[in-house]
TrEMBL record:
InterPro entries: Methyltransf_11, SAM-dependent_MTases_sf. Residues 1-26 are annotated as: Disordered. The keyword Transport does not apply. Residues 67-160 form the Methyltransferase type domain. This is Class I SAM-dependent methyltransferase. It holds the Pfam family Methyltransf_11. It comes from the Bacteria. One of its GO terms (molecular function) is methyltransferase activity. GO terms for biological process: methylation. Keywords: Methyltransferase, S-adenosyl-L-methionine, Transferase.
Amino acid sequence: MAGVTVGSMSERITTDGDGTAPAPVDWDARAADFDDEPDHGLRDPLVRAAWAERLRRWLPGRPADVLDLGCGTGSLSLLAAEQGHRVTGVDLSEAMIERARAKLAGRDAVFLPGDAARPPVAGRRFDVVLVRHVLWALPDPADALRHWRSLLRPSGRLVLVEGVWGTVTPVGIPTDRLLTLLTPLTGHTRVEHLSEDARLWGKEVGDERYAVVAMA
């Protein structure tokens, strides 16, 4: 296998099949075709509806302030905004941010270039920190989680979509490890296994994909 592309949104990296160091990805260059992946662009009505259904479960039932880290082109941000939430998106790629701004033009949403591990939100607090396929790729997941926890208001929640990808040299963060990292930071946690829902990915998948909703 020449290589396997894992994760999603703009924190995603490409790893070589022989276990060598991750190859850098030019995310500004990838912005033009990023939404071609079914679970990135959510262009298929069935895929889009599946993610919208999950977000309704994970996000508060009332309008809330949502921080979408590693937001990419803003597909999840758009679903959250359509459900009445106020969204702040952060991504390293300026090109991704520009596409997100265009996608959510006229919505209650702001997009900022920056590091997902230390988002440039100037001390603001949020009801939800939403992160999809980003945590596993950060150099210090425990530190990132501690910082994200500090960005939550009382009774806020972390919504973390993660997984383990690949068969030759699998990469990712298993469910049990993420739950261990969350134990000192949050109260109630809920896990939803996502691998069996092919609608989310536009195809059948056999690897570990899941979401954790952790209440502050």
